[in-house]
Amino acid sequence: MNSYIYYGGANLNLSTRLARTLGAAGLSLVFLFGIMAANPSSTFAAPPIAGAKAVVTNTDGDSIRIREGAGTGYDKIAAANEGDVVGVVDGPVTDSAGVAWYKIQTSSTTGWMMAAYLAAKDAPAAAPAAQQAPARPAITGYARVANSDGDPVRMRASAARDGAILAKFGPNSTLAVQEGPVTDSEGIAWYRLSAEGQSGWMMAEFLAQANAPAAPAAPAEPAAQPAAPAEQARTGSARGEEPPAAEASSLGSNIVSRAMSKVGSRYRFGGTGPSSFDCSGFVYYVVNNSGFRISRDMAAQLAAGRRISSDELQPGDLVFFVNTYKRGLSHAGIYIGNGKFVHAENESTGVLVSQLWSAYWSSHYYASVRLR
């Protein structure tokens, strides 16, 4: 956990000790300072207060998860968008990772949201000079993606929320810092970064200081190696390479064709089509409309066919992931060949094609299943 994002584990423990000494009034002051220190821009955002209203902010256009409990291990029950006004029921509560959460209420649900995405409604735009927070230390050398609640973070063509999206990087991805921080007209801080052949801007809110990636060790005696047979090209140690094209069965071709026809459809939690889906709802709709019967339940989908290894993948096979937005089995998609899969990713991206062996998805890959 980055000590400068949210409240920082050390500072939060200090806050707890000070609160015991100073009482409720002292806690309010300490918590207010923590929120100010967490904000990477020069603007001041007052913390929410239980019983008052708060506004959802700092989302970079993403929908923010509302969870059953105060922690990323709890199930998502709903989502909120930038600018939504919610009621604050309780908080702040700190989870085991040192991240602060508020219990909030919308017109349709009550649940928990990360404090980093909430600010008091109608808070003053700027604080008096005496209340300004100390500057956040700049990130130098390398940065890693952090505090995104499991979502990939957008890299944009310019330092602005309306900049064209160039790529997305998953949690803990490491990128080289080229420039920044730069503050846009909204007071949001950005860094220009590069990785995987891409260069662009990312919000400082979702970045933390990182060490330089370790260079791979050179072999002591380089020797020519025989080429691996095509069927062995996709192994656990070769996931960074592009796999050979695999021939699909008739069922697999039907599944891929149906799945690709839905690319661009929107994501909706609980959706099973035909125009909106969540991840297992997308698999359920596509497979059941391609000549094979499958359950809506993700665990049942995992058990619906024969487990295969990653080097056996063919178009139309199902792929499963763990520990994405919650612990355990949590995401599913459909393999389409050439190291790619199609899936209903999240509210901000909808149904799209992704690289299966990218840094993010390969780190969460769990199993593959063939339905025939």
Question: Can you give me a brief rundown of this structure?
Answer:
The chain is an alpha+beta fold. It has five helices and 22 strands. It has three domains: 9-127, SH3 Domains (SH3 type barrels, Roll), CATH 2.30.30; 138-210, SH3 Domains (SH3 type barrels, Roll); 242-370, endopeptidase fold (from Nostoc punctiforme).
- The tally of domains stands at 3
Per DSSP, the total helix count is 5
Q: What is the terminal separation in angstroms? A: 44 Å
Low-confidence stretches: 1-44, 123-134, 216-246
The side-by-side strand order for the widest beta sheet comes to 17-22-18-19-20-21
What share of residues is helical? Answer: 10-25%
Radius of gyration: 23 Å
Largest sheet: 6 strands, antiparallel
Superfamily (CATH H level) name of the largest domain: endopeptidase domain like (from Nostoc punctiforme)
Overall outline: globular
According to CATH, the fold-level topology of the largest domain is: endopeptidase fold (from Nostoc punctiforme)
Oligomer: single chain
Q: What is the number of beta strands? A: 22
- CATH architecture label name of the largest domain: Alpha-Beta Complex
Q: What share of the residues does DSSP label as strand, in percent?
A: 25-35%
